[in-house]
Amino acid sequence: MQTRYESSPKETAGMNTAELRNNFLVETLFTANQIHLTYSHYDRMILGGVMPTTETLTLGTYEDLKSEYFLERRELGIINVAGDGKITVDGQEYLVNKLDCLYVGRGAKDITFSSISAENSAKFFVLSCPAHKEYPTQLMTKEAASPAHMGTVETANQRTIYKYIHLDGIRSCQLVMGLTVLQNGSVWNTMPSHTHDRRMEVYCYFDVQEGQGVLHLMGQPQETRHLWVSNHQAIISPPWSIHSGCGTTNYSFIWGMAGENQSFADMDFVAINELR
After folding, report:
1. Minimal CA–CA distance to 54: which of 118, 8, 150?
2. Residue 121 burial (CB < 10 Å; 0-12/13-18/19+)?
3. What is the DSSP string of 157-209?
4. Which residues are recorded as binding Zn(2+) (predicted)?
5. Does 243 count as an annotated binding residue?
6. Which fold has domain 2-274?
7. Rounded to an integer, what distance in angstroms lies between the CA atom of residue 191 and that of residue 146?
8. pLDDT tens digit string along 173-188?
9. Is 196 annotated as a binding residue?
10. What is the pTM of this model?
């Protein structure tokens, strides 16, 4: 498990490309039969990828957590971005297909991941944050996630938003999680951009076509920076930073948050002509 520390707006404004990537971009999420995790000091969020192919993978604890088991003081959100898979939580099996979400509450001890087919393995993106209250483990399919259609063709941001873990969906202690799918011909996400100083956010880009990419915008609204992101890579977004993006073609991304509240609408919007 890697560790990423917090960076101030002033410090970030002076970073070169390599420094920005080292601090905010997680380049490797999925490797066959491995678990990759990154511990961020922004709201103590852990993000990562689990890719079981020919093996069943177990989520154990880590020395840095100083805990008996991974979810002793944490909760966990999981979204599958590839082939059909199975997750077992304390003996209970859950079939988690592409774009399905499984929430696992604090106190669950034995968590394993497997794929239905090794040739089309599952790829589970995971987010975990501290929790002071237990909520039950719950599976939600993409069809049950109340998809909301937003944006227009004229502004190249026609998209469908799926909300899984939030106040009116799967209940959690503080985790919020969902995903956005851009339609053909649409490339912009989260524009007009916004910040929310009360919550950090994580982005995981997926279904980015081979040879294509996403230009992720970050930084303070008057001091923006950018990162080129490829398929199956993640961004750690500080609370003070915008998080918008523009792709060379359409794509999808998972968004997840933790912090002071769980209100999806808690955003401080920035007018496009105010960006610098």
Report:
1. 118
2. buried
3. --EEEEEEESTTSB--SS-EEEEEEEPTT--EES-S-EE-TTEEEEEEEE-PP
4. 194, 196, 201, 243
5. yes
6. Jelly Rolls (2.60.120)
7. 22
8. 999 999 999 999 999 9
9. yes
10. 0.96
